[in-house]
Design brief:
- The protein is globular and about 60 Å long.
- It has a single domain, classed as Ribonuclease Z/Hydroxyacylglutathione hydrolase-like (Metallo-beta-lactamase, Chain A, 4-Layer Sandwich), CATH 3.60.15.10.
- β8 and β9 form a beta hairpin.
- The protein is an alpha/beta fold.
- Helix content is 36%, strand content 18%.
- The strands form 2 sheets. The protein has a 7-stranded mixed β-sheet. Strands 8-9-10-11-12 form a 5-stranded mixed β-sheet, with no helix packed on it.
- It has 11 helices and 12 strands.
- The structure holds zinc ion.
- The site of zinc ion (ZN) has 7 residues, from loops.
- Zinc ion (ZN) binds next to loops.
């Protein structure tokens, strides 16, 4: 039976799209997480797609994450049309990086784009590099070009509830972490949180040296952990549980501690990274085989923060 279903899908793809493979043209696995809540999950290690969450509401769909490019967004919209006939009512950017915003220009004009004011300001600043991990993960980063930017229509600065007869959805701005102005999504009464790139499931979290805050990231994950989440949905990979969330938080706590130890030991500034990263635990917390690997950038970000803090407190 399983083999028969598999063959049917291949035949359907061949009929619809000629010689192109199914995987290229139907890049998402669709996980039904709650009634009317679907995770369009990108393939593991995808260089061009991310997860998007879709919540069906009475008046239309709320889509969280626009995909990294208009092309990926068009594929997402086609995949969404196979599970719901409702129009996209809202598109939420969790943050300003391309992995969350790059596909927005492919969404219908009628969709209302929601984001935090900080996300709006980052997108409006044309000098700000928002390529983030998307360009670095691309098959050919040198050939990668930034997609058109779309500014949000509706800005939120505090918790915002979208209430209808199906689910009570809450949009929650965080104090900091992966990127300033990050917004996560909670579905009330279900212990359900969409957290996007606030959690890395591949042990290779991307930090933006200039704009990420590792300490704030830890604080945000602590706050989230205290809410007793049951289902946590990241930008990549399947939904995770609270223990996995805490393990990820602990990896960031460890980075902060390693960098702090280097300063306490009086290590020269240009040796701090190698000192902090010289531990067998590094390979336990992070995937050192990842390509590209963002682990050094994570430590650089923590070092930058520690340096700024010590300067502020006049600690030598
Ligand atoms: Zn990002």
């Amino acid at each position: 039976m399983i083999r028969f279903v598999g063959v049917s899908i291949v035949l359907l793809c061949a009929t619809l799209i000629g010689t192109a493979s199914c995987a290229e043209n139907q890049p998402f696995v669709v996980d039904t997480l709650l009634d009317g809540v679907w995770l369009f999950r990108a393939p593991e290690h995808s260089t061009s797609h991310t997860n998007s969450l879709v919540i069906e509401r009475e008046a239309g769909l709320l889509v969280v994450e626009a995909q990294p490019s208009p092309e990926a967004a068009r594929q997402l919209l086609r995949a969404i049309a196979a599970v719901s006939t409702k129009p996209v009512q809202y598109l939420l950017f969790t943050h300003a990086h391309v992995e969350s915003t790059g596909g927005a220009s492919a969404f219908p004009e009628s969709a209302l784009v929601i984001a935090s004011a900080l996300t709006h300001d980052a997108l409006a600043d044309e000098t700000r590099d928002l390529s983030g991990e998307t360009r670095l993960r691309a098959t050919d980063p040198d050939a990668w070009t930034a997609p058109p930017r779309v500014l949000p229509d509706m800005l939120i600065s505090s918790g915002t509830r979208l209430v209808d007869g199906k689910h009570i959805v809450e949009l929650l701005p965080l104090a900091g972490g992966h990127y300033p102005g990050f917004v996560i999504v909670r579905i009330e009464a279900e212990g359900f949180y969409y957290v996007g790139s606030m959690v890395s499931t591949d042990r290779n979290p991307f930090a933006d040296v200039e704009h990420s805050g590792i300490r704030a990231w830890v604080n945000s994950l602590n706050s989230l952990s205290l809410r007793r989440p049951e289902t946590i949905v990241p930008l990549r990979g399947e939904a995770i549980d609270a223990d996995t969330l805490r393990r990820f938080r602990d990896s960031l706590v460890w980075v902060v501690g390693q960098v702090e130890n280097a300063f306490i030991e009086g290590i020269d500034a240009d040796e701090v990274l190698s000192f902090a990263m010289d531990s067998p635990s590094l390979g336990e917390y992070f995937n050192l085989e990842a390509d590209p690997s963002f682990v050094t950038t994570l430590f650089e970000t923590a070092r930058g923060e520690a340096t700024a803090q010590r300067r502020k407190r006049r600690i030598p």
